[in-house]
Amino acid sequence: MPDNKSAQTKDPLRVVLVTGLSGAGRSTAMKVLEDHGFEAIDNLPLDLLDVVIGDKRRQRPLAVGIDIRSRNFSASPLLQHIEKLHSDTELDVSLVFLDCSVDVLERRFKETRRRHPLSADRPLKDGILAERRLVAPLQARANYVIDSSDTTTADFRQNLTALLGLEESGIMTIQVMSFSYRFGVPREADLMFDVRFLRNPHYDPDLRRLTGRDKAVADYVREDPDYTEFADSLKKLLLPLLPRYQQEGKNYLTIAIGCTGGRHRSVALTEWLGRHLGKIWSQVIITHRDIDREPDRYR
To answer: Which intervals hold domain RapZ-like N-terminal (predicted)?
Structure first.
């Protein structure tokens, strides 16, 4: 006779949905998950998502790749599917969004001579920006955001496996993320800091089109009279907390730093904090959620 109690306490099936910008590394992500024992299905049409995930006979964890090339793709229906899946107690569903800066995506498409899915009748950059607008709701809802702009394939694999807790190293992964308050706070943030009190490079015509990754902008932000005290206080706050979070069993910790537009102040602070933590912590990821948003749309 079957043990009903054992069936009721069975661990939920793990499902990882992988989406994001074309060229940001979805194919690599699917291969990584397959290497870790996931059944990987790429470019699954949305109308088959419930059918595939709903197969209760499935034993292996499932990874599903979905982007604008998937048939019937649309962010809104996909989000509705995800909310429905989250209500199923037999499933452990997470959404991974793969991000990348526009200039790096342009270079990748040109180097591989591949055509961007949305650039058939328009310049490559316009196609990339159009896709970013289409998938923005998915990025805002994602459980994990990985920026592949400045990472090697090896680093990308390490970041993905660490964020999803697939490694047994026991070392907590720290993600330091910049974001724009105009586009909503990141849901995955464990700690959040507001740097809108710092002077804004947006109002300097020579700096407006640059980002916090540029030295001129970083120097401008550092010259704020309150910058040094804030940065020192942030370090003193975080350093004793990190080992305590790891002791509590956290696999990853997301520290979010926000400003108005997500391009200047928050990016500069995120770069600084990520580099500093990287000197004392072995697994640190730096991501910039809104760095490619159009700068003239906000103040």
So the answer is: 14-164
Q: Which residues of 12-28 are buried (b: 16+ CB within 10 A; e: fewer)?
A: ebbbbbbbbbbbbbbeb
State the binding site for ATP: 20-27
The answer to whether the pTM exceeds 0.85 is no
Residue ranges with strand state E in 56-153: 62-65, 91-99, 144-147
DSSP 74: -
- Supply 219's token pair: 């120097």
| Binding site listing | 20-27, 67-70
As a whole number of angstroms, the distance between CA 198 and CA 51 comes to 50
pLDDT, tens only, 103-146: 999 999 888 888 888 877 788 889 899 899 999 999 988 999 99
Tokens 């979805």 identify what position? Answer: 26
Report which of 238, 100, 99, 92 is spatially closest to residue 165, judged by C-alpha positions. 92
| H or E segment and range at residue 207 | none
Predicted confidence (pLDDT) per residue in 203-253, tens digit: 999 999 999 999 999 999 999 999 999 999 999 999 999 999 888 877 789
The CA distance from 54 to 68, in Å, is: 23
* Length of the chain (residues): 299
The number of angstroms, rounded, from the C-alpha of 165 to the middle of its chain's C-alpha atoms is 15
With H, G, I as helix, E, B as strand and everything else as coil, classify residue 257.
strand
How many whole angstroms from its chain centre is CA 181? 16
Annotated binding site for GTP: 67-70
CB 179 within 8 A of CB 262: yes
d(CA 263, CA 207): 11
- For residue 30 the two structure tokens come to 């699917």
Give the domains, in start order, of the chain with CATH numbers: 12-163 (3.40.50.300), 173-297 (no CATH)
Tell me the C-alpha to C-alpha distance, in Å, between residue 47 and each of 15, 62, 74, 83, 153: 17, 17, 11, 15, 32
